[in-house]
Design a protein that fits this description.
This protein is of the alpha/beta class. It contains nine helices and seven strands, in the order H-H-E-H-H-E-H-E-H-E-H-E-H-E-H-E. Helix 5 crosses helix 6 (105-115) and helix 8 (158-171) packs parallel to helix 9 (185-196). One of its GO terms (biological process) is methylation.
Length: 207
């Protein structure tokens, strides 16, 4: 427990704490324009007494897991670097990462997982066919061994296809890690659905 407390203090130094954020929560647009000084770990808890930060840090002790990464496209370079490091660390400790193919969070997760050189432990599930992805995403996805396309959703609006994709990822994982803004509606819905399915949810707010 002492080592967990030390880890918590280190992470608070990196990400900031709830006390630093004040009472006003900026919108996603404000955070992008004005910048955000901290990343806040939410109190998103299916069971009141479960400490999700400790659950996150204890993954290695509990054995490899299937972990789903979700998050906003709109984030700064520093946040993407942190996500890359986390993804890399989880893959080298033999956890299987599931994510989608968008820019921002998903791209950072993919880059980190690829650095670990364990291609069998990364699965990217796309909301639609590969050809519907932007060129920069297609270039990154060309390096991924396990890419699941969903061409049957090409006729759907991207938001609806993404919702179905997120549910598919949730169904295949034991834990969800999400980086979002308070007004990221689809991501909030995704975390709530994961909570309803009794998955461990670790939610980081970027604002």
């Amino acid at each position: 427990m002492d080592s967990w407390k030390a880890e918590e203090e280190n992470i608070e130094c990196m990400f900031g704490s709830n006390e630093d954020t004040g009472n006003q929560i900026p919108t996603q647009a404000q955070s992008i324009v004005e910048g955000s000084g901290t990343v806040v770990l939410s109190e998103f808890k299916p069971v009141p007494d479960v400490d999700y930060l400790q659950e996150l840090l204890a993954i290695q002790q509990q054995g490899p897991r299937a972990i789903g990464f979700f998050g906003t496209r709109n984030m700064g370079f520093m946040h993407q670097e942190l996500i890359e490091i986390l993804s890399y660390a989880l893959v080298i400790t033999k956890n299987h990462i599931y994510t989608s193919g968008a820019s921002g969070t998903n791209a950072a997760v993919i880059r980190g997982a690829l650095r670990a050189e364990k291609p069998e432990l990364l699965t990217v599930i796309l909301p639609q066919s590969l050809k519907k992805q932007p060129p920069e995403s297609q270039e990154l996805l060309a390096k991924v061994q396990n890419v699941v396309e969903k061409p049957h959703n090409d006729h759907l609006p991207l938001i609806e296809a993404s919702r179905l994709c997120n549910m598919d990822i949730i169904s295949q994982v034991q834990q969800v890690i999400c980086f979002a803004f308070h007004d990221s509606r689809l991501l909030m819905e995704t975390c709530q659905e994961a909570k309803n399915l009794r998955k461990i949810v670790t939610l980081f707010y970027l604002d």
